[in-house]
Every structure is written in structure tokens, then in C-alpha cells.
Amino acid sequence: MVGKKNNMEISIMTHADLVIGQYVSFVVTLNSDEPIEPCKSIIIKNNSNNIQFDKMIIPISNDTCNLLSGGTATLGFTVLQKVGGQTVKDGSPITFDVTTDALAGGNGFETVKFTGKANELDINSLHLFIEHPYLQVPSGSSKLPSTAIHTTLKNKNTNKELIGTPIFITSFELHEMKEFVFKDAKNNKEIPVEKVGPNDGITIFSDSQGVVKFYLSPKLPLSNILGLKTVILNTRYESYSKVIHVVNDCDPINMELMDAPDISDYDPDGIAANAGLSYFLVSIYDYNNKLKIDDIVLFFVNGNYTGISVAIVDPKKQLNNYSMQVPYSIFTQGVSSQFSYKVIRHKDISLCSEALPVTYLGGIPYEPDPAVKRNYNPCIVHTSLGVGPDNTIPSGYGNYVNYDAIMKYPGYKYSGLFVEILCSDTHDPNATVNSVPLNINDITLNMYINSDNKNFKKSYNQQITLNEIGSDGNANSIFFHIPYGDIVDVRGTGNISFDYQFYLPEQLGYGVSWDANIGTIPDPGHTDNN
């Protein structure tokens, strides 16, 4: 007889999607208002032939065999790749029963039945999207910065979300995880770091929508570097994420600053791309040998990280000469800027430089890189009215982004532009370009503007949902909002381009550029309600 107050639970979803080849461990917990009989066991029964348990009978944890009001046991099994010489099929059922011979108050515990499925994993869905890969530690603040990190696990063949799937997240280098704090999807409960094999990491289960989400923050207000790796245990499935840089603020009063970066052919009146190159050369002077192998140099404009970094691998070749290539596009043309750098290393104080005043005079237009291979569809640009098919601006010079396209209309929520990136679960190997795979969510959108008065490049990572837009549209697409302030008052017959990039295994994917003309001067006497 099963006791009404006797409860047995397992730490994985009872209908979880598991990956073929995966090793899965879980905890069985017994609870009761009555004392539980000592020296009893958890017993696995009726398991399907496509899994293999380490042990079918595991003692309930109890060192002294005293009476217990609760107890646990940890079990593990492997989802087999072959059974009887036959490959385990995608979608095949995985079943087993968790039972116990323990009694509490003379009554037993109800059997827990597991009914999941074996899946082939889409390896691209293991790639983690890091919302803020650059974390600035404020000087004198006790609150350390954090970033949300997430992905959606999907089946390789059906593109369906995988529910309740355990994944192991660890670091590129051994034992770096212990320098950080990890919290759950609501940023409330801390996730413990555990040792699995030679390295430390955290185990997270995908939720009912297939989403894996957690938060990360540094433990100490020191500079640090962390590269995350997502692993399906006991398989070859693994994916590397962007590197997270943690940088503490510079204190010019209490710290010695490095010399400002030196630009080849620098002129205090301005620098220009006269040689036709898209980059300029920078020298970092380190006469006191402060920089070491594995240090990372990050470049800043007006105190903002440019996304350009250089790893020090050979100090003799890289330092004290013009060896570092930095694109002119980090500057806004005609605007005086402060160019500087910081050096970060593991668990240490950042080194900071003096700033070099730079005015970029032009010479190279802001445009998508012509040298990269572009295998994905151009984006679709929509007016401020929304992302429906009637609100698109065609690509091609002669088509205009004008003021009417970006203004805020009565009864509408937004001004500016919306940019749509098409996603699909189909891929035509014979096509010149394809839609972005549905499992991709880490996309950077780039905007390039050249005009009489404004010349710049700007990148966007923050996406917007159809629900936030309040408009009909393609539910499979990814959308970005371009704020009104970024594109208003562009004078003359300017040009505007959009392209995007995203991570694929071991490479970047690029979208074909969208191009048009732009002129967004408000009409005389216009009242700006944007």
C-alpha cells in the first residue's frame, strides 16, 4: 500500500527529451511525515533496451542506517547509440520505472514512471547567446555586473524544441568557472558549480519551451576572461561561445596609466584613410614589460568598448611597433574622439591607458565588408508603421529612407525603422543564399550611413518581439528596432546599408547587404513628437 504522505521525486522531468549517446544522472528523493525504514534501496525496473543504467539498485543515502524522515540516491544511465547492432532511432521512446523497497509508517512509495524520447541534437542549438559579453565593474561599487545567457535546444531533424534536456556548461580553460557566480533563469537561485571529469561546470535543464537560460556575474571586482563551452556528456556534441570580458574601472588618481596608443602617421588635426585601407595600424608601447602572454588588449572610443580586441601571444612582435590593425569604422567621421585601451588578464586589476584625441576625416565609406562570403538573405527594412508586408522599403539605390518612413504616426507606438531577418528550418544546398536557421538567436545587425553630415557604422544586438512591435508579421523572423534618433536629420543624398552576422560552428555567417538612399530632414515647421 502507498502512503498518502509518502512522496518520491526525481530531479529530471519525467517526460524529458534526451540526446542519443548522452550520459544522464539524476537524484531520487524520498520524503515522508513518518520515519522511513533504514538500509533500503532505489530499484530501477522496466527500463527500455535503448538505455543502460550504471546500477539497477542503489542504496538510499544513510551512513548509519538510522530511521530517516527523508533520503536520496543518485543514479546514472547512458542513452545507447546502438541496440543489437541497430542504430537507435531519433524519436524512439525511453522508459523506466523508479521504485523503492523502503516503507514509511508501514506504507510504500508510489512508483515514478519516466517516459521520454531519444533525440538527434541540432548542434547549432548548443551555441549560447551572451547578452553582455563585456562586463564593466564600476569603481567603488559593491554590486557586480551580470549578464543573461541563453539558447533553445532543438532536434536536428524535426527542429522541435527539446524539453527537460540536461546540458553541462564548463569553461575553455580548466577551473575558471569557480571565479563566477551562476544563477537560474529568474536570476534568483544560485546554481552550484560541480566537478564532472577533469573540469568544473554547471548542469542546467531546458525548460518546457526548450530554453536554457541562466545568469553569470564575477565573484570579485577584478578583470577576468571566461570562455564558455556547452557539452552533452558522453557525446561529441559541444559548442564554444563568445568570450566574456570582465573589466574593472580605471582610477586615474590611484593608478599609473599606460601610454596612449600610437597610430601610424598620426596627425592631431585628424587621420584619413588615404591609402585606401579599411584599417589603421596601432602600436602599444610597453617599455616596462608590464604586458604578458595571454593578456588581452581591448580598444575603446570615448570610454566605450569597440568590440576590437587583440590577444598577446608574442610580446616581442606585437608590442612597441605598429602591429595591431584597428578598423576606421570604430570612429564617427568628423567627430573628435578619445581613443584608448585597457589590458585585462585573469583575476587581476586592469591596466589602463591615457587617451589619444582622434578625429577621423574619412577616406573609406562605411559599408559592409566586401571581402566576406555572404550566404544568407538580405534583411527586410520596414517603416515605423510596423512589420507587415505593406510597410517595406525595397532595397536598391534610388529607393529612399525618407522622413515619412521614420516619423511617429498618430495611433502608432514607434518611430524609426524595423529590420527583419528571415529564418527558416529549410536549407537548399543549391541556392545562392538561404534564410538563417531557426535555431540561431545570436545575431548582430549592422547599419552603415554615409551622407553630407553623418557618416558612421552602428551595431545592434537587442532584438524586439512581434508582441512588442504590436504588428502582424512572420513569427519565425528575428526583428530589430532602429531608434528614430539614430537616423533622423541625415542630410543630402546619403546612402544607408544593413547587413548582419551570426555564429555557426567554427565560422561566422553573413547576410547579403540591403542598400538604399537616405535623407531624413524634417519638413520646415514640423513638430517633433518622436
UniProtKB/TrEMBL annotation:
Q: Which domain of life is it from?
A: Bacteria
**Name of the protein:** Uncharacterized protein
What organism does the record attribute this protein to? Xenorhabdus mauleonii
